[in-house]
Specification:
- By secondary structure, the chain is mainly α.
- Helices cover about 65% and strands about 0% of the residues.
């Protein structure tokens, strides 16, 4: 998770504090795993007092959510850029514009992601990460055709499958290339999209 972007509502000092706390949490997750981290641990790592922490966040869960929201915003930006650069009619899979960016981010920070979604992750971290992925999938799925299965059900199924696949991948000593993992997930997801009647009409057509 990258530092939170500067926001107009936050002064520079507040932003530096949030960035320091977010960085401390990331470091500790990679080092210890979520369940063994306390607010005091985060404060000590960031060299920030508890009162300052609580002036920004209600607890470590809120700090985690803030970092994931930042990651989500960046993945949405990448997805939009990828969509704009796509060749019209090339048949890009709907709802998956963020996938490669997230896989590459996990590859670059595999130790951190093992703490987020690997065997050492706690329930809270895994659940928050899965919720972020579900929002990303849901935002990009096309409207359902008449008689389609519930769109939210498809988004939940696909996001859960992706998180499990990514969890398996980050634990491998020699993981497959990022583009191959993206292609594998898309291939596995196609039957769900088809049965849900959420496949874009151009999916799979030649340019």
């Amino acid at each position: 998770m990258t530092p939170l972007p500067t926001q107009p509502t936050l002064d520079r000092r507040s932003q530096r504090t949030r960035n320091a706390l977010n960085g401390a949490l990331i470091h500790l997750i990679a080092e210890r795993g979520w369940d063994d981290i306390s607010v005091q641990d985060v404060c000590d790592q960031a060299n920030i007092g508890r009162s300052t922490f609580y002036s920004h966040y209600t607890g470590k869960d809120a700090l985690l959510v803030g970092g994931l929201e930042n990651l989500q915003a960046e993945l949405r930006r990448q997805s939009r850029a990828r969509s704009q650069a796509a060749v019209p009619g090339a048949g890009a899979a709907p709802g998956f514009g963020f996938v490669l960016g997230l896989i590459e981010h996990a590859h670059d920070q595999r130790k951190i992601f093992r703490g987020l979604i690997g065997r050492r992750s706690g329930y809270v971290v895994h659940q928050r990460f899965r919720e972020m992925v579900m929002r990303l999938v849901s935002d990009e799925l096309p409207p359902p055709a008449p008689g389609a299965l519930p769109r939210e059900a498809a988004a939940r199924w696909l996001s859960a499958a992706f998180v499990e696949l990514l969890s398996w991948w980050v634990e491998q000593s020699e993981p497959m290339p990022t583009t191959e993992l993206e292609a594998l997930f898309i291939a596995l997801a196609q039957p769900v999209l088809a049965q849900s009647r959420l496949v874009h009409p151009d999916l799979g057509r030649a340019p």
